């Protein structure tokens, strides 16, 4: 059985724009529902959600069955967490809060087998098709996509060096934590925050490095798409449920008032 190519990574490195969302509610059923709407990718979050390893696997199964790009965010850049997620079948990882090139290089090493890295070797994991992908160990590294998240003033200052680390396939800017680091907690739309983000994106574009972003602001999402940001997160499962439920109630109240 051949090991399938990572289409999400191929599109990202080709600078093809992909639109997606974050799944935080630990619900394979909701992920399955969202898959039918046409999103290019769904990120399974374990940093700010109750999802554990078995939960991640169930959500990966849903995404794989719908041919939607599956991205997983570990809770931290931790060697053991990353090893387990890779063995579970995650191939696209978003590493939170990477501040320096050294931290980025460490994250890369956790995704590579020795002698290039530190990943533990198993040829019978789910990622290896339980031993049915004979070429898995040889091809695993080339099919893994690693994105690192810029979320602090320090990481902004080091962004060019982080982007240059071999094995870092893209840079994802996290506006919420960045806003807090810049002194504007809860206000990612503050002019200072937006200026910092725009400058970072311009720098990354000049370096030819794929970029990622998440915003729940519709106007900003359209702007980021116009800028050509390759990986645009436009919602979370919670924001979709909240918005949809509120819209239903608002519609009913308008009808009652009329």
Plain-language structure description:
The protein is an alpha/beta fold. Helix 2 (28-35) packs parallel to helix 3. It has helices spanning 7-13, 28-35, 53-65, 79-88, 101-109, 136-143, 153-157, 159-163, 175-181, 191-207, 218-226, 237-257; strands spanning 18-23, 41-45, 69-73, 92-95, 145-150, 170-173, 211-214, 231-236. It has 12 helices and 8 strands. The radius of gyration is 19 Å and the shape is globular.
Element layout with pairings:
Blueprint lengths: L6 H7 L4 E6 L4 H8 L5 E5 L7 H13 L3 E5 L5 H10 L3 E4 L5 H9 L26 H8 L1 E6 L2 H5 L1 H5 L6 E4 L1 H7 L9 H17 L3 E4 L3 H9 L4 E6 H21 L1
Helix pairs in contact: 2-3
Précis, in short:
With 258 residues, the chain is an alpha/beta fold. It has helices at residues 7-13, 28-35, 53-65, 79-88, 101-109, 136-143, 153-157, 159-163, 175-181, 191-207, 218-226, 237-257, and strands spanning 18-23, 41-45, 69-73, 92-95, 145-150, 170-173, 211-214, 231-236.
Query: CATH topology, what is it called?
Result: TIM Barrel
Give the structural class.
Answer: alpha/beta
Give the uncertain stretches in residue-range form.
none
**Overall outline:** globular
CATH architecture: Alpha-Beta Barrel
SSE series: HEHEHEHEHHEHHEHHEHEH
Number of strands: 8
Query: What is the number of independent domains?
Result: 1
| Main pleated sheet | 8 strands, parallel, barrel
**Distinct helical segment count:** 12
Give the CA-CA distance, first to last residue. Answer: 62 Å
CATH superfamily: Phosphoenolpyruvate-binding domains
Helix content percent band: 40-55%
For this structure, what is the CATH class? Alpha Beta
Strand content: 15-25%
Q: What topology, given as strand order, has the largest sheet?
A: 1-2-3-4-5-6-7-8
